[in-house]
Design a protein that fits this description.
The chain is built from eight helices and nine strands. The protein has a single domain (10-154, 193-223, 234-244), classed as 3-Layer(aba) Sandwich (Rossmann fold). Strand 4, helix 5 and strand 5 form a beta-alpha-beta unit. 36% of the residues are buried. It has helices at residues 13-25, 33-40, 57-64, 76-92, 132-142, 158-161, 177-181, 193-201; strands at 47-51, 68-73, 100-103, 117-123, 143-154, 172-175, 187-190, 205-213, 237-244. 31% of the residues lie in helices and 24% in strands. It has a seven-stranded mixed beta sheet with strand order 3-2-1-4-5-9-8, with helices on both faces. The chain has 245 residues and is α/β, with parallel strands linked by helices.
C-alpha cells in the first residue's frame, strides 16, 4: 500500500540522487559496500528485496550481479528517479538487467509480497526508519523461511562520538547535519543497538553475524566533531546479517 503522506526525502530527492551519484562514481567512498556484498555472497538468480532502496543505488549493483531485484521505498520521488535511471540505462544498453520498483511503506505489512523473496538487503537506511519494529516484521513476512536479511547501518554508538546526540539512550529524531549542509535536510532516528536487535529478534529473525566495518583514518574530516584522536579506531558503520526462523 502506498504511503499516505510524503516521505522525508521527497523534497530533496534530486539533490540526494546527485550525492549518491558521487558515491557511485567512486565506490571506495562507500565503506560499507564491499563488506555488505561479501556477506551477501552469490546473488545471481536470487529473488531479492532491496528494502528502502532510495534511488536504486544498491538495486543496480545487485542486478548487475544477476539478482532478480525488487526495490521498495517510501519516497515516491526517489522511486521515480530510480525508474528514470533504469529507463535510461536500458535505452543505452537493452541488455541492462531489469529491476522492479514500487512505492510502499515497509513498516506496514505487504500482503502481495508474502514469502516472495529469498533474500532481503537494506543499505544505510535502517537509521531513517520511523518504525523499526514494523520494518523488521514486514521484511520478515516478505522473505521465505530460512531466507536472509543483510543490513548496513550507521553504528548507533557513533552518533555520540560525532556529537549528533549527547545521550546514547535518548531515543528520538535528530538532524543529519552533514547531509543538511549538502542540501538534504533529513533526519535520523536514534535507537540503541539493543533496541535494533530486540526488534529484529522479535520479528522472527536470528542473528548470524554482526560485522563492525573498519573506518580508515581520515575518512571523517569535514567537521571537527567527527575526528578521533590520533591512533584511535572506531567503527562508524556495522552490518547485521540475519536469517529468518
Amino acid at each position: 500500500m502506498p504511503p499516505s503522506k510524503p516521505a522525508d526525502y521527497d523534497p530533496y530527492a534530486e539533490r540526494y540522487a546527485e550525492m549518491v551519484a558521487e558515491r557511485e562514481a567512486d565506490p571506495a567512498r562507500d565503506l560499507t559496500l564491499a563488506p555488505l556484498l561479501a556477506e551477501l555472497g552469490e546473488v545471481a538468480g536470487r529473488r531479492t528485496l532491496d528494502a528502502a532502496c532510495g534511488e536504486g543505488y544498491l538495486a543496480r549493483i545487485l542486478a548487475r550481479r544477476g539478482a532478480v531485484v525488487t526495490g521498495v521505498d517510501l519516497s515516491a520521488q526517489l522511486i521515480a528517479l530510480a525508474q528514470r535511471r533504469l529507463a535510461a540505462d536500458r535505452a543505452a544498453d537493452p541488455a541492462s538487467p531489469p529491476i522492479r520498483y514500487a512505492v510502499a511503506d515497509l513498516s506496514q505489512p505487504l500482503p502481495a509480497a508474502l514469502g516472495r523473496f529469498e533474500l532481503a538487503v537494506s543499505h544505510l537506511a535502517l537509521n531513517d526508519i520511523a518504525d523499526e519494529q514494523g520494518f523488521f516484521r514486514a521484511v520478515a513476512e516478505a522473505v521465505e523461511p530460512a531466507g536472509r536479511f543483510v543490513l548496513s547501518l550507521n553504528n548507533p554508538y557513533s552518533y555520540v562520538l560525532r556529537s549528533h546526540v549527547k545521550d546514547y539512550f535518548a531515543a528520538g529524531k535528530y538532524s543529519y547535519r552533514g547531509m543538511a549542509e549538502q542540501g538534504v535536510a533529513v533526519s535520523f532516528y536514534q535507537r540503541t543497538l539493543a533496541q535494533y536487535l530486540d526488534a529484529a529478534l522479535g520479528a522472527s529473525w536470528r542473528l548470524r553475524r554482526l560485522i563492525d566495518v573498519p573506518t580508515p583514518e581520515g575518512s571523517f574530516t569535514r567537521r571537527p566533531d567527527t575526528l578521533l584522536p590520533p591512533d584511535y579506531a572506531f567503527p562508524m558503520f556495522m552490518i547485521l546479517s540475519l536469517e529468518r526462523a
